[in-house]
């Protein structure tokens, strides 16, 4: 009886260790992070469109943080290439989404930071793609931060997710590079 209990305990410890080495379930992580990001983006944009009139400014924390309902036919930071911006950036976003999907697919399950950052960027990209399809005027933007006439570009939850995800992705590449350098250095050391 004791042998069976010990075997059971050691098997569960080995299984837990193996699961930790293997990482997260990639599909669950993608659906959770991208899904929550997309849901927050869609709900906040719907609320803005239903609550504010186009170009209306509503202070939240004085002049520093305001809600300003606008549409952006271009890309992040007000990048606009003219009358075909909406279609150009829609096509570019779809290509980027395919590349992100490929990167997600080849990323190992144990690299949770990279997987989460890619999922965050995907969720944001899908949110803005939906707007480009739904609205001829472009993406709904509403987060307006700054002081007086010194203001940041107006953005949305999707833009935030893409920006944060991109920074986290760069961090994951940096950490991987450091990890690889340490491993190479360790392999050079005599035993």
Strand content: 5-15%
Arrangement of strands in the largest sheet: 1-2-3-4
- Secondary-structure content class: alpha+beta
Average of the residue pLDDT scores: 87
Give the distance, in angstroms, between the N- and C-terminal Cα atoms: 43 Å
Instruction: Provide the succession of SSEs.
Output: HHEEHHEEH
Instruction: Characterize the largest beta sheet: strand count, sense, and whether it forms a barrel.
Output: 4 strands, antiparallel
Residues in helices, as a percent range: 55-70%
The gross shape turns out to be elongated
According to DSSP, the number of beta strands is: 4
Give an overview of the whole structure.
By secondary structure, the chain is α+β, with helices and mostly antiparallel strands. It has one domain. The chain is built from 5 helices and 4 strands. It has helices spanning 2-22, 26-51, 85-106, 112-134, 157-188; strands at 57-61, 65-72, 139-147, 150-151. A 4-stranded antiparallel beta sheet has the order 1-2-3-4. A hairpin with a 3-residue loop joins strand 1 and strand 2 (65-72). It is elongated. The two termini are 43 Å apart. Mean pLDDT is 87; it is low at 7-20.
Secondary structure blueprint with pairings:
Elements: H1 2-22, H2 26-51, E1 57-61, E2 65-72, H3 85-106, H4 112-134, E3 139-147, E4 150-151, H5 157-188
Antiparallel strand pairs: 1-2, 2-3, 3-4
Helix pairs in contact: 2-4, 3-4, 4-5
